[in-house]
Amino acid sequence: MTETERAVDDAERAREQGGGARGRRPVPRRLVRDELGVLLVLGLLVAGIGIPYPDFLDTGNLLSTAHNSVYISLMACGMVFALAMREVDLSVGGTYAMCLVIGALLVREGVDPWLAVPVVLLTGIALGIFNALVTTLLALPSFIVTLGTLMLFRGVGLALADGKQITDLPLDDSFFTFAGGDPGGVPFALWVLVAVVVILAVVLTRTRFGARVRAIGSNPDAAAFSGIPVVRTRIQALALSGLTTACAAALALAFYGAGDPTLGQGYELQAIAACIIGGTPLAGGRGSVVGAVAGAMILSVVAAGLVFFEVPINWTSFATGGVILVAVAADSALRRTGRRRT
C-alpha cells in the first residue's frame, strides 16, 4: 500500500467520521445517526399499519414480513458496495434465478444439498467477476454490461430448467427442514441476514477494502492517480454482489423446496431502491449496509400493509413508489438537519 493510497484511506475515514476531533465519535453512535432517518420511516410505517390493524403487529406476521424481505436485503447488501464506487449491478435478478436453478439441478441429480450450496455461492462469485471483466475489457459502464448479463443469466437459467420449475427434491433432507425452517422460532434466513449485515457493515466501514470502495466512489480519477487498484476493487465489489445474491438463491431453494427460473424478476430494481432509501447515493462515495436492509424492510412492510388496507393490486406499484419518495425525502431532510447541527 503506497503512502498516497494510505493518505486517501485516512482522508476517506476522516470524511466518514465528520473530520477533526468532533468527528471522532464511537462507531455505533455514527451508525445510528446515519441510519436514523430510514429507521424512523420504518418504525412509523409499522406503527401506522399496526394501530388500525393490531394483527399486523403479531409476532408471526412481523417475522413473516421480515422474512419476505430477506432475498432483496441480501442483494442490497452486496449492491451497496457497487453503488458506493459508482458501479451498478443490474444482473442480480438473473444471477439469482440462474444460481437457484443450478442448485436445484444439483440436488435433483443426487448431490447432497449442503454440498450444493458452495457450488451455488461460487457460481454467484463467478458471475460477478464475469460482469467486472466485461466492464473492464470493453470499457463500458457497468449499467450497460449488467443490463445485458441480466437477460443472459436469466436465459441460461431458463434453458437449464427447460422453462419449467425444478421439483422432486428430497424435502425431508436437513437442508430443507433446517435452512428452510424456523430454528429458535425465527426463520433461518433471518439469522443468515443478521450475520451478513454485521460482517459487511464492518467490511464497508472498518477495512481497507471498504475505504478503497468509498475512495473510488468519491473521486475515481484521484483514486487511480493515487495508486488504488481500481480494476481489482471493481472485480471484488461485483464479485461480492454476486456472492450475496447467490446466498439469497441458496436460502430461497431451502425455503421454497424447488427451483423456479422465473423467480427474481424485478429484484434488481428493488435492491437498488432499497440501497437508495437506506442512504446509498448513485453518485457514490458512501453507503450503508444497515440502511439498505432497512430500505428492503420498508418495501416489504409496504407490500404487507397494502394487503391489510385491502388496496387493489393495480395500485400496488403506485403506493410503493410513493413510499419510496417519502422515505428518501425524509432521510435527506434528516441528514441536512444533522449536518447543520454539526
Basic shape: globular
Largest sheet: none
Report how far apart the termini are. 33 Å
Oligomer: single chain
Query: Would you list the SSEs in sequence order as H and E?
Result: HHHHHHHHHHHHHHH
Counted by DSSP, the helix tally is: 15
Helix amount, in percent?
Answer: over 70%
- Gyration radius, rounded: 20 Å
Q: On the 0-100 scale, what is the average pLDDT? A: 86
Architecture overview:
This protein is mostly helical. Helix content is 73%, strand content 0%. The chain contains 15 helices and no strands. It has helices at residues 3-16, 27-50, 59-68, 70-84, 92-108, 113-137, 142-160, 174-179, 188-206, 208-218, 220-225, 230-256, 267-277, 289-308, 316-341. α4 (70-84) packs parallel to α9 and α5 packs across α12 (230-256). The model is unreliable at 1-5 and 14-31 (pLDDT under 50).
